[in-house]
Amino acid sequence: MRILVIGQGLAGTLASHFGLRKGWDVHVIDAGLPSASSVAAGMFNPMSFRRVIEAWEAEAHLQVMRQTFLELESITGSKLLFEMPIHKRLANSDYAALWKDKSTQLPWLGAPAAHWPTEGIVEGGGWVNLPLLLNLWRDRLKAEQRFELRGFQDQDAENLKRGQWDAIVDCRGTSAGIDGPLPCLDIRPYRGELLTIQHQNDGATPPQSHILNFGKWTIPLGGGQWRLGASYEWNQTDLEPSAETQQYLIDALHAAVPNMGAMTVTEHQVGLRPVSRDRRPAVGPYPGIPGWYVLNGLGTRGVLIGPRWARHLVDIIDGNATLTPETKPDRLLFSKP
Ligand SMILES: Cc1cc2nc3c(=O)[nH]c(=O)nc-3n(C[C@H](O)[C@H](O)[C@H](O)COP(=O)(O)OP(=O)(O)OC[C@H]3O[C@@H](n4cnc5c(N)ncnc54)[C@H](O)[C@@H]3O)c2cc1C
């Protein structure tokens, strides 16, 4: 099989990994546009905190996720997967009671600990170093002459028609909603900003051994650094970091960690999460264009759900899996005005 993957964010990285694992001749192009994956915090969490329910098919997603990133660690020779508990601040007594009740039913949840009565604990969480993975994977593809830094061209579609490619796998993230081929997929940008902060060694710090969720969240990176995020804004596509959002995140952190010592913001990043209207990914053939497949709509949980659906897509292309109705791309089709 000769496969062309368009886009090397998380989706394209995973699709090319599973294609190569099948022994296929996989090539990847990327236009070098700002990508969600290169700024993402990479956190995974089997819980949805608003109603204290399990995330969509959490167990199945977690299992493939863990196996895949461990495999990628061994291929790249670098540590990528950091498993650690997530502590959720219990904002009021109603929420604490709901948490306590759910902790008797859901395997991921611990009841609030006696020494942390205002925090519920989630096992099965952590984060993946996506920027590092993307760079290492690109280097590897380049070394095997499988990567080109360029945008999709009409000639690529021609080459698919002529049989030079057996399949094209379209992993363009939010670009899939705005550039060809027609018709487009309804993948919406969900803008987010996040910070990397360096603590100055005086006063209290965010926790160093677990992720803390206080509505916003901190992820410990080690060396006195944390990622602090994130903002969520619909219908905005500008990629300029905003001073107001930075202040908003820092104020939230100060409220959550009293007596926080001085810190500096070492990085302030912005990205557009590719989200579908029903929050499910698009995985399968693109209707009307034989040989054209899509992996998109990984949304706010690309790390958790991406591996399972990338593997599924490669199995569909190989004829070893059937389409899952919930994730069929044709539910997201629309014609450009
Ligand atoms: C601030 C922020 C924080 C986040 N935090 C988390 C988190 O903690 N956990 C989590 O699971 N998810 C998180 N996400 C979401 C996560 O980033 C996405 O789910 C995932 O990265 C999407 O990957 P993707 O490959 O589909 O898209 P992208 O990463 O956007 O990649 C698309 C790629 O396609 C390329 N491309 C586009 N058009 C073309 C073209 N015409 N030709 C060739 N190449 C093209 C682009 O150059 C780009 O590299 C976060 C996102 C943001 C913005």
Q: How would you sum up this structure, described in words?
A:
The chain is an alpha+beta fold. It folds into two domains: 2-44 and 130-186 and 277-334, FAD/NAD(P)-binding domain (3-Layer(bba) Sandwich), CATH 3.50.50; 189-276, 2-Layer Sandwich (D-Amino Acid Oxidase, Chain A, domain 2). It has helices spanning 10-21, 58-76, 93-102, 130-143, 154-161, 243-256, 302-317; strands at 2-6, 25-30, 43-44, 47-48, 53-54, 81-83, 86-89, 109-110, 119-122, 126-128, 147-149, 167-170, 184-185, 187-199, 211-213, 217-222, 225-229, 233-234, 263-276, 282-285, 292-296, 333-334. β15 and β16 form a beta hairpin. The chain is globular, with a radius of gyration of 21 Å. The model has no long low-confidence stretch (mean pLDDT 94).
Summed up, the helix count is 7
β-strand percent reads 25-35%
CATH H-level superfamily of the largest domain:
FAD/NAD(P)-binding domain
The largest sheet, given as strand count, sense and whether it forms a barrel, is: 9 strands, mixed
SSE order: EHEEEEHEEHEEEHEHEEEEEEEHEEEHE
